[in-house]
Records
---
Amino acid sequence: MSAVDVPSAVASTMTFIAYVDDPAIVTWMHERTRAIVEKHPARLVLLDGTLDQGSHQTHAVARTEWVLLGTRGLSPEQLRSIAHAFTRTGVPTVLLWAGHRILDDPIFPALNATVDSLILDSSRIAPGVAQLAELAEYFAQEPRLAVQDLAYLRLTPWQEMIAQFFDEPEFADELQALEHVIIAAGSQAEAYYLLCWLASRLEWSPSGAHQLKNRQGKPITFAFQPEGGPRRVRSVELRSQTSTFRAQLEDDDATVCLSVDGAKKRAMRCEPLHDIAIVDLLERAILEPQTSDVYRATVEMVRALLAKTGAS
Amino acid sequence: MLDASATATARVNGAPNPLREGVHSDRIKDSCSIVFFGASGDLFKRMLLPSVYELRRRGTLPTGFSLVGFARTAYSDDEFREYCKKQLDEFAYGAKPEGSMWDDFAKSIRYVTADFDATTHFTDLKKILEQNDELFKTGGNRLFYLATPPSVFPKIIEQVAAAGLDPSNNLKGWTRIVVEKPFGIDLPSARALQAEVEKVFNESQVYRIDHYLGKEPVQDIMALRFANVIFEPIWNRNYVDSVQITSAETLGVEERGGYYDSAGALRDMIQNHVMNLMALVAMEPPATADADAIRTEKFKVFAAIQPPALAAVKSMSARGQYDAGTIDGTPVIAYRKEPDVALDSNTETYAAVKLFVDNWRWAGVPFYLRSGKRLARKCSEIAVTFRSIPHRLYGEKTDAIEPNVLVVKIQPEEGISLRFDAKVPGPKQHIRGVSMDFNYGAGFGVESPPAYERLISDAMRGDQTLFTRWDAVERAWEIVMPILQTWQDERDRTFPNYGAGGQGPQPARELFDEWRSL
């Protein structure tokens, strides 16, 4: 492939490489990635596996530039080489991976080798946990991988709201006495992530297909209810012997109402479900590229739990 | 610097909540009640209420929260909630108030119909705040916000103490007070107000607001200076020729004629906004990023500025008042024809001053400050002009080799530009000036949140960085007082002396003939 003449941008914060091989989301990818580079001046290299090799477009506007390359038919090594040729020096390189597979796609490790950090969305392709399972496996092989999974970042407001329940000193003990978790969500990846985040924070461990045990060895059961649109959590319910903590998404899809029932009942209050738009998530993934220890522990828990449940 | 209570985790007893670790949250940790004195006024409905509601909508407000309105207009709690909803319908800049979010927020709104002279109404407020601690778990924390005309500030502070609402009587939580600008109208009045404030509050509890400092680009100045290594080595008298700071508006006095005619550009802009920008440019790197370290360095700049001697005022300053003219193709009236402005007003709508920072870093470098209304272009910026090259090697004889200029653009554009000289390609040695621009607003595509949103949340968090400390306020008044005094005592018979839509008055060009074009 011949070099593509790309005008210099006025300012640049990164090289943003996006790979897509699914015709169903090509337009979606174009729009979202361009929205990102409109916000963060960058060189966007969009590697489109649905277009034949040799086809390309380049654009440069006042503060950013983007390159679209058809890559169907190229070998992983060719792709790596092209991606590298377009990488700006002196700024980080970020890969947004929207390929179907991780483990069995040789393009993934080839591209991943050229970048500083990786972003993917393990609940994008299907409501199941196939891609999350692959990510967890890959993560086990590459523990130093700097990765941000949008499916996990999407849960931040839910994590914050669940944490809120237990900010009150009166509920501190309840946290250690939880017995049952019910998560209603439109995709399994988010449900697994939320459960495994909770489990890793509270030092639970998987003990069966639908069961964990806490530090004292007491059983904790969990249930996932398929409900609502893909990639959206509808509700989380945590039960102890004396209390039920419930966070429920309202019909407006923008507000979550929190309630505590039981011995220490609390009045319902509502919180905004904010920062879950895809561009917001991508932006966070770019600005905070380091993989946190909390996330690492969560992914390890996902791997351990999936090994027990055999879900895919 | 965060005060001790604000650094406490959400749990006051026992181990920290393990679910909090690693969870990103902008939520303010300390629960609190915020009391708006003057809650039926314009500032509350246009700026403060929309800012608080947006903080709620973004999930920034603490879990335990209550908004208490305190004003003369008679409302019940429900009527005030309705009033707030109506104002938000008109002035909210995020989503409008509706659904569960609004219902939940509305529940936390309370109101006290009040006469500021009646201590009993402040006692009623105390009861409501105590109820809030139970109802909304506000933890005894109280933020008082003075959104009334400044003339009422001392009375409110006195009544707060009389009702036992002062910090020394609050054993459960913290008590803070936000004081709106202007903090006094001159040095004696500022000192008198401070005397009232410090009878009740210590400095760590006082948040003197200057909304200008809450603007994102103003905060960018420190990041530019102290997050980059390339500027600091040349940021001194050896390389800098002069600094000019501009705050120019195309607007006139709008509906503020009455206030403005008793204030003028020097009081309204230079003494606070523009001098604060100057401090950010001239300050030494603080030892830490905490509020007191930063505010100490800012104060040191003011301490190093000598107020002009009365005899030197004319050579160190210039004033102007706009006449009729044309802005953006639209004819506009003269200042003296504006509503509530005296027909023979001596008030300046344009002020320019030349100041020197007498310290090791800046000795001999003039800082030119200007601010005016009805000028050619809306523009706030800081331009640092560097010295000329010591010896000319390049350029054809006709080429002007201009000095480098670094411009920090504050509004309407937000960014940085650097002017430098480059060789024009070709066999000749032509040198041409070029400007390299970076625009924050466009560059990061992010609309800065309104300044009040940032400042209210900072006050709730106990972060005083963006609020002005008393020593700096006092020193800024000391610096401008000789000019104020002279301008007050000597009528300017040339007024009006600049046409609306122009570059400003002739005396400003006599003060400095290299103002950047507006």
Note: The CA atoms of residues 237 and 362 of chain B lie 5 Å apart.
---
Amino acid sequence: MTEGRAPLSKWSYPQTDALQGKTFPSGNPKFCPFPTVTSLLLAKFCPVALLHDLLHGRDYALLGTPDPEIKRRGDLFHKFIAHIKESLIKGELKLSGYDISQSFHPFAEKYGFKFNARNDLYRRYIGPWVERKFEELKNISQSDRDKLFFEISVANYYVPLPYKDGRKSYPLEGRIDEIDIKNKRIIERTIKGFKEDTEPPALKDYQTWLLWKTLSSLKRNQLPSQWRDIDFEEFELIVETPYKDFSVSYENPSYVEEIHSGYAWIHDISISESRIIGQKAYENRSKDCPILNPEKECGLIHICRHRNYPYPQSRPEIKQIFKSWYQYLLWEQIWEGSLFQYQLLKLPKEELIEKGLILEGKIISFSGDRKIELEINRKISSLGGYDEYTIIPFGTLFCGKHMRAKLSKVKGNRLIIELISEGVFPSETAILFPDILESSSPLLQEPPTFLERQTQSGLLKLQQSGAIKEEKAKSRSWIQLLEAIFGIKLLRRGSK
Amino acid sequence: MRKMKFESSDLSITEAVEKMFQALSNDLGIGVSEEKAGWRSLIDFGIEPSHQSELLRRSIVERNSRGQFRLNFRNSRIRQEFKKFNQQFEQLDCFLEDIEKLNEAQRILTQITEMLQSAPEYWTYIIALGWWRMLELSEFPAKIDDIFNEGFSPEDWMIKAPRCAFELALNIASKYGEIDGFKEALDSLERQGIHTSQSFVPLSLIGQDEVQKVMRVLKWEEIKEKLADFNVKMLGFLWTLYFVLQNENLLPSSAEFSLKLNQMMWNNAENIFGKKQQDLLSNLENTLKKLNERGIIWASDIVRLPEII
């Protein structure tokens, strides 16, 4: 793990003018990106991993391997457990090991897992988990219909965190895997870990603690209406692997130390005027990652320890020029995406609606084909841009179930949106718990900052690609093009 | 025929090779030289002494005069045989190559530093070359209104502004001594045995009236006026080092060695200017902050340090 960085005197929030949308977005925004729990985990893991996330759009250091399959496996593990629990609540699943294993195959197949992969997944993760949790699953019934929640997003503008004798406040957002109201538990689930572990997998305890801190920092009126009398401070924090459960302590001095340092890294890499922040990040690279024996559990190993091919020869120039492009692309993301997030959490709801940042609609109906009909209290002609939305059918902008949806139809002041199954559970919380819906559901369009991240990632790929031999370099037009654009050597046309 | 005990697919030999890599990595990582790194007794690698001759015969290991062994990592046949370790071999090659590069870079840095200390008139050439590289790679950010006001279209600007890089560099260098042109600066280094011999060319120059316009757009005189002498020299020095090392293909591949090179460059800069890196940088940052406050927000994108890491 990384070494610390001196805490900031205070977090750089956007000024009122920027929040009101009165500042022309250009140059260094002077306010920080809206931090996610993942950014803080990355900062603790290795500041270079955080740098790759912020500047190069590569956020998979924590996966432990560059193989994207591991993420799909983790997602499936989590989704399937939610599916089992939701099916038990709905009375659709009989509780026998056989039934669970039978329902796993069609479920995993829907997500593109082949037969062998499904067997492997069941044997390694699902099977051990079911065996361990069988008794607990028996206790789930229809009476739990408003007690179990999966993938709940939490965010707060000011999360107070202990610092020396006082506290410092920072913004933070993240997603909780499971909130179990009946048993008063917050669960972070992972496929990492082994049977013989005595500690939770690296950083998972810290992650759970950060999510809990965010949730418990919310005021009553920021919570879903049904939760306003719940004291989340009392909730037990659990990291759940397929093989074991680990209880996480509320008090851990290292968390407090790490978090301030993590925020400082996020600030410094994103918007500080320091000329040498990259140098500092590399100097502080995890001590577990020496050059000849790098950190095996890092998904960015091939990016971080890439081979510098001799061609294109203009690579040093490319590096100098791309350096500022990465930064500008990050600033664009801050102006677009982070500012939007700050606005959502800081401006009054009426103002958000008035500025067109969110729509608010009353859910009129659900239909079996995942369609939601919403009645909107304003002119729908104002809808524009692309047709992907985020709807919060349960909860508030601070804490709730975020679901991706596509605009399907507009009928007068009514919208029909279709939930997009990928990334959400097949049995949606909203459909499962229709009686606990908020009276109105926010509908918003998140800025497409993923495009800038893709550009950052593509630029890094271009910067790091190349050829070892000159003949290869000459036969690859893209290398020749790079030499022509960025090189300083005299280029000759033709064979002479 | 009796089957050989050690096949490349044999788990025990693979494990032994892994241990040999580990020993090499550990030693090299703590600064042991290549000649002395990785030597251990066979038993430390989990290999029975009875297998010694077989391993030597197949050139998997080499033996030193003290009867110790290590992986024969320079042998290309071994690399073919143990493809599983491709990544480790590659890392090892990069590491050893970077050591060589760094040693040579150190020699050049010392040479340039001593040259400047004994013959300060060379500062003119160093500033001219360094500032030329810095400016040409800056892509000349500027305010669009100012670009239009001087009669450039955005396209003109993209084409013409970078062509002024050397004129601007000469403009700032001429404050420190006489200099006629680009070739003079390069020749001065060549005379000192510092090679800049590759066939690069600066972009072709443009007329003086256009140069004046570019200067006005950039508010060049204000930028120049605000920068302290030692900052002008520091930037010229660091960028020239970068330029020379790049030409000599001495920029390391790995971040670790790039960090070391960066440190070496700053050690030399501290030595020349008699100031700490932090003080040199904070002075530059304060200057850029002041320029930013005066509306010259592009200054920090032009006046910047080379990206070594």
Note: The CA atoms of residues 91 and 254 of chain B lie 9 Å apart.
---
Amino acid sequence: MGEILGVGTTHYPLLISPDEDRSFPLTRTLRNNTNVPEAMKIPTNWPEAMRVEYGEDKGFKSAQKHRERLLKGFREIRTAIDDFKPDIVLIWGDDQYENFKEDIIPAFCVLAYDQFEGTPFTNRDGSYRRNVWGEPQDKSFVYRGAPQAGRALAGGLIEEGFDIAYSYQPLHEKGLGHAFLNTLLYLDYDRKGFDHAVLPIAVNCYGSSVIRNRGGAITQKVNGVELPFDPPSPSPKRCMELGATTARVLKDSQYRVALVASSSWSHAFLTPKNHWLWPDLESDRSRFEELSDGDYDAWKQISTDQIEDAGQQELLNWMCLAGAMQETGRKPEILDYVETNVFNSNKCLALFNP
Amino acid sequence: MAEILGVGLTHSPSLISPDELKNYSLTRALKSNDRIPAELKDPASWPEPMRAEWGDDEGYTSAKKQRVKLADGFRRLRAELDAFKPDVVLVWGDDQYENFKEDIIPTFCIMAYDEFECRPMVGRDGGQRPNVWDEPADKVFRYQGHDASRYLAGALLEAGFDIAYSYKPLHQPGLGHAFLNTLLYLDYDRKGFDYPVIPFSVNCYGRNVIRNRGGAITQMVNGVEMAMDPPGPSPKRCMEIGAATARALQASPWRVALIASSSWSHAFLTPKNWWLYPDVESDLARFNELKAGNYEAWRNIPNSQIEDAGQQEMLNWMCLAGAMSELDRKPEIIAFLQTYIFNSSKCLAVMKP
């Protein structure tokens, strides 16, 4: 008889970079995004709370506080996972035009590899990625996979009418995409090692812009013409159904599984109505209240249009978890809910204990 | 104004190969499948109709007869297609470890390429593939894609089908053989095929797609047989996606031909017949259900029965059956060719508005 622990977390990339580098998405947007009106690049035109958070030091002190709160949550989650003694840590994460590109975009994909090997401190251009751990460019992280459980879960989902894809080895992204890899790096922020077997499930969160915008904010052009929209992501309802069925299949298995949803919520760079500068705080707050109340049904009704309007594409990972938690009758224990205007996205850290 | 034409056919590779080469899967099995006991390789031990079909020329005369019937059937299907004047032709076909391999096996994938550039007359070894048209290895067949592919992918995702889509080839340049052979045979007389195409890939090979690489032989890793892969979609799910496809296209501006492309039970997928001949009885049962328009009889067939009968590729037809059930269409059978020696029974059918 399987047992399940629910975990909600973030893979916010900026926890990797030293705060003094100020390589926040906001800094990049101000520099590179030509769609942002010039007036809106001036802090005096920002919301009051954002100006305060940005402060006199372009967000440096706030970034330190942001990090402290997140680390506290990550350490609590790590303890809960270790105490639970999982056979498998399953992670729902998005693929931001990393492993999946024009030659195939699956709605869902179970990555049933034997193992995962990643070098997170080598940038795409081959350069060194500065990191808070001072770890070298060639430092390699190896994680055990869960190939048998992955095959069994994929089979169980297909038999239940989910048309998922599966894979045994990387396609374009060697190792793991950042949603999965960052999660594992942060769950081992103190570098004591992470030996739990990992089962990543890719969710196509970026939907109608996954290829069009390559999982970012900028629409690609071919011969001067913008690429058309891609087919949509799976709906919140479908993600919740997938999560519920995943929980049922695993409950019938012999495994103890930590089900981890990894993503921040509304993303500034996905929120055109806020000029890509700050996230949709109001919408996130509504989602947070619903989550705190265990009102999962409220999430099931949300349309993909609403998700895109709020820049909450990555919340689809949490929708999978929400479906699983509804199925198992779990209420969340909120570890922290960190709101921000400056640091791209609001972050929720939560546990759903048996 | 949307309209749909249903078509069922085969992509049996042996139609490409000149009959005198006797390049059937049976001749290959007799030569290279070590699991077949020697006494069963002796025609004297075969079922009576199989021996008759084999004759005294290793099936050559029978192959010629089968070709005449199939080529004629394809001409009739092409005439129906031309009369229907489709804006686009959708083909449900399987991927036999061609475009999709260890780095991803999608259950369903809509290939929304701009175009498909294919070189079918290149052999596996990169040389000339002998073919009945005497076409050279460098002959290129080019087919156009269509915007309806993105539309359909979107509509299916919105309806709760977790399909994959793609804009360009992964491992297989152009098109896998299920799709390409279909197009080659629909233009058997080489007058050209200008209809845009939506290939819709179905993971028919399921638990053996990687394990057996879409064939009969299980792969070994360090001397140990590979584990089973996750299953393919069930007949029920294929029928559901077929029905949803029909609904989405009926709400579109296009005239679409929906084509299921595959033979039925395959000898090389039927262990109970020692991979020598297909499950003729099971195919006959399916055929009688189809002829009667009794699509519902197909809906609850379990995957285990499909695999036992070597009918994995029939999942393509299940998609078509779901669409035709949705549209309440009865089939007009163009041909049903049963065979023991040519790997698989073949059905050609049309379901007209």
Note: Chain A touches chain B through 39 residues (CB under 8 Å).
